[in-house]
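Memo to structure team: turn this sequence into structure tokens by end of day. - J.P.
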Amino acid sequence: MCFDFPPERKAPNRCARFHKRVLQMKIYIKKYIILFLVIQLLSALIPVILKFISPEIFTQQISEGVTQTFGNGYFQLISRYILNIIIIKYMWNDMIKMKIKNNWILILTFFSGFMGIIFFLFIIFESKLSTNENRIN
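Reply from structure team:
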């Protein structure tokens, strides 16, 4: 465990490594929270923009004088799946950097971006803690 040391005493290397890992984790958390929020916002805006540009995309002519109108939900869902690929790309790059091999997280992220990010951060926490414990012992 790291404690605050007075300025005249230097903290052990163990504490310096611990604080470095905590800062790295904060960076990962901020990165993926911002990425998730931007993707949620974009997936909500894409149907609105499409409806504004071309409203006929949301309608289908069934017979003479009868049309069927689709809601935003389908387009939101499709755009969310497509935008989750961006999250997968960032995760894949970070997995390569940290030498983590877990393709199930990437598959989970495609279907649910939030759950994929949560499990990815858990795996990062676990790998950082396990390397930290190995160095201490």
